[in-house]
Amino acid sequence: MAFITTTNLLDSLVLAIVKREDTYGYKITQEIRDSIDVSESTLYPVLRRLLKDNCLESYDKAYMGRNRRYYKITNKGSLTLDMYKDNWRQCKKSIEKILLK
């Protein structure tokens, strides 16, 4: 992708994925990689920040003899995602007025 990947964009993508279902870090990374180039080392600080900001909660679940950390969206995370979606729609509309004219 030729455009800059911002913190807010990564936050919104993670929140959107986790809103669909509780999931774990590696799966989130793979899903985001389907759209933009991002590494696990970029994504885990995003998860920690969203946890710290109370947008996500985490819990461990046994998987093949090991614990896997799952992430779940909070009410605050859902409200934050809604804000990001509104901002995205407004930004997209403004840019398309110029870029696709």
Give a summary of the structure in a few sentences.
By secondary structure, the protein is an alpha+beta fold.
Q: What does it look like?
A:
This protein is α+β, with helices and mostly antiparallel strands. It has a single domain, classed as Arc Repressor Mutant, subunit A, CATH 1.10.10. Helix content is 60%, strand content 18%. The model has no long low-confidence stretch (mean pLDDT 92).
**Which structural class fits the helix and strand makeup?**
alpha+beta
Main β sheet profile: 3 strands, antiparallel
Averaged pLDDT? 92
How many extended strands?
Answer: 3
Tally of separate helices = 4
Separation, N- and C-terminal Cα atoms: 21 Å
Low-confidence stretches: none
The backbone outline, from C-alpha atoms, is: elongated
The fourth-level CATH homologous superfamily is Winged helix-like DNA-binding domain superfamily/Winged helix DNA-binding domain
The strand order across the widest sheet is: 1-3-2
% residues in beta strands: 15-25%
The run of helices and strands is HEHHEEH
